[in-house]
Each structure stands twice: as C-alpha cells, then as structure tokens.
Amino acid sequence: MATTTTLPMTKTSLRSATDLGYKTFTAGKFRFERDEYFAHIHFPGGRHIIAVDAFLRSLMRDVAWGFFYGTVNFDNVFGTVNHYGTVEMFAGLFNKGYKDANRHYVEKFQSTDLKATFEAMLIDWTNEGFDPFAAPEETGRPFGPKKGSNEKAVQRQRVVAQRMVGLKGDSPYRSDASGYPVNRQFTDVPQDEPEIHAEPGFETEVHAFNLYGYLSRSDVTWNPSVCSGVKDSLMCPTTEEYILPIIHGNDRVEWFIQATDEIVWDVDDKNTGAPMAKVTMRAGDVAAMPANIRHRGYSPKRSMLLVWENNDGRLPSMYANQELKPYPVEF
Ligand code: PHB
Ligand code: FE
Question: What is the mean pLDDT of residues 177-204?
C-alpha cells in the first residue's frame, strides 16, 4: 500500500484577505477577495484569479463609466454587460472554453446596487499612492498588505460636458492654477487658444477651444470624457499610455480618430475571443470599430485619441437583431 504525505503550505507567506487588512465583498453568488498580489473571484462552479493592479484599473473604469457601452471584459473570463438600468456580471460568458463546457456563470443586478459594491471594493482595495487611472510610470504600486487609501483618486468624476468644454456653466478648462499641469509627454503641445468672433447675439452659441492643449493637461489615461455633445453624437477624447485595462465588447459601432502618436489595437471576436485583426493607428488615421468585436489598445507613448460614440439607446437591440450590419460603411 502506498503512503501519502501531505506537504503543508508555508504559513509565513500565505496570509488571508482579513489578515492583510482587506475586506471581502459579495454580490449575489460572487465573492471577491484580495491578497498581496491578486484579486480572487469565486462563483458557483469555479474560481478566477486576476493580478490586482489590472483588476483595480479595470474596476476603476467600470465604476467611473457606469458600466460603459456593452461589455467590459476585465480579461477573457470576468466582466460585466450593461443593460442600462440592470447589469450582468459574468464568468466565462464570452469565453469559448467555458461556454462549450457549460462552466460559465452569469447573474443580473440593479446597476446602482452593483456599482455601490464595486465602489466600496475599489476604495477598500486601493492603497495609498496607487492611482488606477494613472499611467504606470506616474503612480505607485498597489501590492502588499493594506496601507492607507487613495479616495481622492478613485472618486474622480468623469468629465461630461453638456454642450462643450469651456462654455458658460459647462465643464471648465484645465490650467496650472486648477491643478492640471501639462503632462511630461506633451510639453511640445501648443497652448494658445483660438480667437472667437461671434456675430452679436450668438456669443453663447459660437464656441471653440484648443482641444490639444486641453488633452495635454489630462492627468488620467484610458478615460474617454464627453467634451462636446450634439444630441446622441458624443465626442469623447482621451489620453492613452500603456494598455487599455479593459477589453471592450461593443454593442454598437464606435469611431476612432488617432489625434497624435500611435496605438496598436487587438481586435477579437466579441463572443469567443478568437483573434480577428491587429490595427495600427497613427496620427490622422480613422477607424470604425464594428459592433460585433472586442478590442484592447496598446499605446507605447502617451497619445491622444478621439472616441466618437453614438449614445442612441435603440442601437444595441438593432445590432443584436441584425437590423443593422455590424460595420457602418461598405466600400
Ligand atoms: C474603447 O473601448 O473604445 C475605449 C475605451 C477607453 C479608451 C479608448 C477606447 O480610453
Ligand atoms: Fe470600445
């Protein structure tokens, strides 16, 4: 008869979430724990592990964007699907392996409830000195036992201009005085402002500002903000450096205009994650991201990207029912 020996875990290094000072969170049948390096996600039938820096960067976006448009994949297993009022949280829903083996798990929540849980988790799990919105070069590290907090960073409000940045009563400009210095990688961006000569009576209607100057002063990365809106047409420019934390699964077409420098995009099938394309966008390039894909961008140097969103709430079902083709033009 064979004898078995159980080798113990070395207790000096493995400490539980509570020993480390972090709270454990639950939402429905999902349970979230963090340790020094990882977020652990438990759900009926499985468990998942994500590096805590990547997890917090994704969580930050999911919270700040109110679950965004369509699917926010934290990686190829875990994420959320926005149903605009309710939200689904899933493990394996858009992963061929999990789906084929019927090991995926999905649960629906009121958006306000899940957002509150996510906010509390983000606040508790973010240590002093770590800013999940900042480029890795511009922030401290998230690892180790609980040490302080960074509520100011994780409670940032996303810019949402009603008409346009700089109009009376709308989102303000950025300046040194308001705490937005020019970023280290945009010191060559001209800061002059356009002259506006409106006909009498149109002073509050005609407007222009230096968008490049405005973006050069952004202190966050991968955070499209609404800088101007006309009905459902939303101009959402953003400054990008390193990697888009989430993999975005579209529920509509969105347009990209690369305003400076370069971003490389991985484009994969929305449902299975199978690779479909690599898109390299250089300054001046324009692309439409189709409604049936997921994508993640890589920006080697801080760059400026204009994301053009169509906020029409009828679009997701029109694409889902194939009333609309997944791409916007045929050549
Ligand atoms: C996108 O998913 O389209 C997206 C998200 C964040 C960005 C840029 C693009 O900063
Ligand atoms: Fe996207």
Answer: 96
Work out the average pLDDT over 233-255: 98
For residue 9, pLDDT beyond 70 = no
- Ligand 1 centre from 297 Cα, in Å? 8
Taking only Cα atoms into account, the Rg of the chain, rounded to an integer number of angstroms, comes to: 22
Which ligand sits nearest to residue 293's alpha carbon?
2
pLDDT of residue 11: 60
- Please give the distance of CA 19 from its chain centroid, rounded to a whole number: 30
Assess whether the C-beta atom of 222 lies below 6 angstroms from ligand 1: yes
Where are the domain boundaries for CATH 2.30.31 in the chain?
A: 16-156
| Average pLDDT value for residue range 84-97 | 98
Every domain of the chain with CATH number 2.60.120.10 lies at 158-219+221-331
Ligand 1 atom closest to the CA of 289, numbered from 1: 3
Above 90 in pLDDT, residue 110? yes
Q: How far is the CA of 238 from the centre of ligand 2 (A)?
A: 12
Q: Is 218 in the pocket of ligand 1 (CB under 6 A)?
A: no
pTM for the model stands at 0.95
DSSP symbols for 34-53: E-SSEEEEEETTEEEEEEHH
Q: What's the mean per-residue pLDDT of the chain?
A: 95
Ligand nearest to the CA of 61: 1
User: H or E element: which one contains 151?
Assistant: helix 151-154
Distances (CA, A) of 208 to 191, 246, 257: 14, 32, 19
Whether ligand 1 lies within 6 angstroms of the CB of 244 is answered as: yes
Q: What is residue 139's predicted lDDT score, i.e. its pLDDT?
A: 98
CATH number corresponding to 158-219+221-331 = 2.60.120.10
Q: Which CATH architecture has domain 16-156?
A: Roll (2.30)
Take atom 10 of ligand 1 and give the residue whose Cα is closest. 222
